[in-house]
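Why does residue order matter? Because the sequence determines the fold. Keep that principle in mind as you read this record.
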Amino acid sequence: MSTAAGSAVKVGDELEPLTRVVSQEQINAYAEASGDFNPIHVDEEFARSVGLPGTIAHGLLELGILAEAVARWAGTSDALLALECRFSKPLRAGDAITCTGRVAAVDDAEGVATLDVEATSDRGERVLTNGRARVRLSR
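Structure:
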């Protein structure tokens, strides 16, 4: 695999940041697709009644956007071997999420890169933290 600059993948290489605005319509569509209709995601009044600032995105919707960022860097979603993170702050409907990452290790023998990844909201809150991705490098 090569980076955008055409050099081999190395420790310190960064993902191109990926930003997406997560709308209430997208959250509703995710609820429909996943079957997760927890009212904190789809009912503004309920979300506020339990102390949230409004409806919030599903954590796995956020994780899917992070997976997209890593897959774009890798060149294909098939290269993404593993992805994990901590859901640290809620992402509100209407917020933008920006996913970033950096290569932490390259195992040439295995043909795998390990990346530290995270996501922040446009409010400056780290919504996905302690992220780690493993990516198969093309040979």
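The two ends are 6 Å apart (CA to CA).
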